[in-house]
């Protein structure tokens, strides 16, 4: 789910048929599931790099379903279905090809994601002949393999050059994100911070939900009121207590709003965020939060002459401060040059509007072509921010 480090589940439960059908639920090891899907979706005679690319896509798609708790948040007792209308093909009891089984055993704990994102990529695919889609073409991957493309080049060709490989992910039993008991006023800890961050992001689309400030991991009056408003909007018992139904409604809304289960995702970046808000930021600081701020301002400057062009270097220097002031002037905010909560949210909302109407329009921004030939495997968790970072960014700020 979106608040747990990605991992490889030891077992996965597959519902045979569409989600609401009366089909049985089949539990198998994750590696056996991927072997079955690979043998059901592609041909064992294909070139090795095509087989690898397809297996990595199939693994990443399944892990995205597990990570986002896609079906659990909808009340289903399984992680994925066998229906190709929703997920990927799985045929109980089918024969498994020896070369496919060996390859899956080698790479089933590897997956792909976008750089700066935490979640495994929702790597959708189609056969590329009778059906086409925005993701990987299965027959197209074989053609590219015959042209000499390696597996990462094939994946980047279809999913973009910001795709990276994560290797040797941890393996353990399926984890549920719900902490096991209700959270309410007086509680504290990382689970409360998850609630606060989730509500703050959801409130960007549902402004009636009050912002929680600061995000400190303490379930106080602000958090209780935000939870109550969330519950009232979504027809839950408005008691301010985050039980299982409220928790999974938060998961459901957060995944939906950020498109975590889609090929084009806003990206999940809560992991690694400090729970405390420092009173000031130290001069000379830098990091991913500043980098993200600069990226949004640089994009907005392309569509608004009132904003100066900005170099993205991750350091909050004079140029960034002037860009912030120009944005604040445009939005009639106090021209402090400091990115507080209100300034961050306004920048984000305007950037999101540009992203949805312009940047995501393939007719205006076609693919730039072949990706880099070499890809460096990545380990660990990304921390790039797409939400207010939890403290003001000022001239000289840098990430800890």
Assembly form of the protein: single chain
Shape: globular
Helix content: 25-40%
What is the first-to-last residue Cα distance?
A: 26 Å
Figure out the total of helices.
11
Overall mean pLDDT stands at 84
Q: State the secondary-structure class.
A: mainly alpha
Q: In a nutshell, what does this entry contain?
A:
The protein has 400 residues and is mainly alpha-helical.
Describe this structure in words.
- The strands form 4 sheets. Strands 3-2-4 form a 3-stranded mixed beta sheet. A two-stranded parallel ribbon has the order 1-9. Strands 5-8 form a two-stranded antiparallel ribbon.
- The longest helix is centred in the first third of the chain and has 20 residues, at 48-67.
- It has helices at 30-41, 48-67, 98-107, 138-146, 151-159, 190-203, 221-233, 244-258, 288-301, 318-330, 341-359, and strands at residues 8-9, 11-15, 25-29, 80-81, 111-114, 125-126, 136-137, 163-166, 171-172.
- It is mainly alpha-helical.
- The two termini are 26 Å apart.
- Helix 2 (48-67) runs antiparallel to helix 4 (138-146).
- The chain is built from 11 helices and 9 strands.
């Amino acid at each position: 789910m979106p608040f747990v480090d990605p991992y490889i589940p030891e077992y996965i439960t597959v519902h045979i048929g569409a989600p609401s059908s009366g089909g049985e639920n089949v539990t198998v090891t994750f590696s056996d599931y991927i072997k079955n899907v690979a043998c059901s979706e592609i041909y064992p005679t294909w070139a090795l790099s095509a087989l690898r690319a397809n297996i990595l896509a199939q693994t990443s798609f399944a892990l995205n379903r597990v990570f986002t708790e896609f079906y659990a948040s909808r009340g289903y007792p399984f992680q994925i279905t066998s229906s190709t209308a929703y997920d990927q093909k799985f045929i109980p009891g089918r024969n498994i090809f020896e070369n496919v089984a060996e390859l899956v055993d080698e790479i089933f704990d590897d997956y792909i994601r976008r750089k700066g994102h935490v979640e495994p990529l929702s790597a959708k695919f189609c056969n590329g002949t009778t059906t086409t889609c925005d993701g990987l073409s299965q027959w197209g991957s074989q053609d590219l393999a015959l042209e000499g493309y390696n597996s990462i080049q094939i994946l980047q060709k279809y999913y973009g050059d910001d795709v990276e490989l994560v290797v040797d992910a941890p393996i353990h039993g399926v984890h549920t994100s719900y902490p096991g008991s209700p959270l309410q006023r007086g509680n504290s800890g990382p689970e409360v911070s998850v609630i606060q961050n989730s509500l703050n992001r959801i409130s960007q689309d549902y402004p009636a939900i009050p912002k929680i400030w600061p995000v400190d991991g303490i379930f106080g009056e602000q958090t209780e009121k935000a939870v109550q408003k969330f519950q009232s909007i979504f027809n839950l018992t408005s008691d301010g207590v985050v039980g299982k139904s409220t928790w999974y409604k938060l998961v459901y809304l957060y995944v939906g709003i950020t498109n975590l289960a889609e090929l084009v995702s806003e990206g999940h970046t809560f992991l690694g965020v400090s729970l405390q808000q420092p009173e000031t930021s130290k001069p000379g600081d830098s990091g991913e939060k500043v980098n993200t701020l600069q990226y949004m301002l640089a994009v907005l400057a392309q569509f608004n002459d009132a904003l100066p062009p900005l170099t993205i270097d991750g350091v909050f220097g004079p140029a960034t401060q002037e860009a912030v002031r120009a944005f604040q002037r445009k939005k009639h905010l106090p021209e402090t040059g400091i990115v507080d909560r209100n300034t961050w949210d306004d920048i984000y909302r305007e950037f999101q509007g540009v992203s949805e109407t312009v940047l995501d329009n393939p007719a205006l921004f076609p693919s730039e072509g072949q990706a880099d030939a070499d890809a460096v495997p990545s380990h660990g968790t990304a921390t790039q921010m797409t939400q207010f970072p939890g403290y003001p960014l000022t001239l000289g700020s840098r990430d800890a």
